[in-house]
Amino acid sequence: MINSLYKEFINWSYTGSIWIISDTHFEDSDCKYMDSNWITPEEHIVNINKMVMPVDTLIHLGDVGNAEWIDKIRARRKILITGNHDKLSEVQRHFHETFTGPLFIADRILLSHEPIFGLEGFCLNIHGHDHAGIQYKNHINLASNVCGYQPVSLGKLIKQGVLSDIPNYHRLTIDDASNRKRYKESSDGWFKYYINVETGEKKFELDEGDVLTP
Fold this sequence. Notes:
The protein has 2 domains: 10-159, Purple Acid Phosphatase, chain A, domain 2; 169-203, no CATH class. It has 5 helices and 12 strands. The strands form 3 sheets. It has a 5-stranded mixed sheet. The chain has a 4-stranded mixed sheet with strand order 5-6-7-8, with no helix packed on it. A 3-stranded antiparallel sheet has the order 10-11-12. Helix content is 18%, strand content 21%. The N and C termini lie far apart (52 Å).
C-alpha cells in the first residue's frame, strides 16, 4: 500500500500495485508515424498483462485508442486521465474512474496527459503525450513507445527515490521564511538592500528567485 497518496486515492493500492502507462493508441491509424516499430494491440495487451495482476490498479494517462481493448486488461481497477484524442463518451464506460485534467494524487505527484511545466520545483509530473521520448527535469514520460510498451510501477518509482530531490511545498515556504529572518533591511539612500545579521553579507533581493550581491 502507498500511504503517501491522498486519502481519496489510497484505495487504489489497497490490494496490489499501481501501474501507469500512457498513449496506447489501440488501433489508431497514425501509430506508425509516431514510431515505425509500434506494436499491435494484441502484443500491447500481452505486455501489460505480464506486469499487471488481477489485484492491481492500472492508471492510463490518456490517448487510449479503441477503448474496447481496455476490457482485456486484468487489473482490479482502471483509472483514466483523458488525453487530447479521447472522447469521454466513448472511453468512460471502460474505466472505473475518469478525470479530465491534471490530477495531484499526493503532495508531490502530479498525473497528466501532456507534460505540465512551471511546477518542477515542488512536484514530480508523470505524463505521456510526447512520443519523441524527451525527459524533462522532475518529469517522467510514460508514453507507451517511450517506456517499452509496458506499464511502470508507481510504488517502485517511489522506492527508487524519484521524490528525494523534490521538497514539500510547505518546506519551501518554511525555508524561505527562515532565510528572511536572518536578514535586516537597510538602505544607502538610493538602494534598499538586506544585511545578514550573522555574516554582514549584503543582498539586493530576498525572494524565491536569484539573489544579487553587490
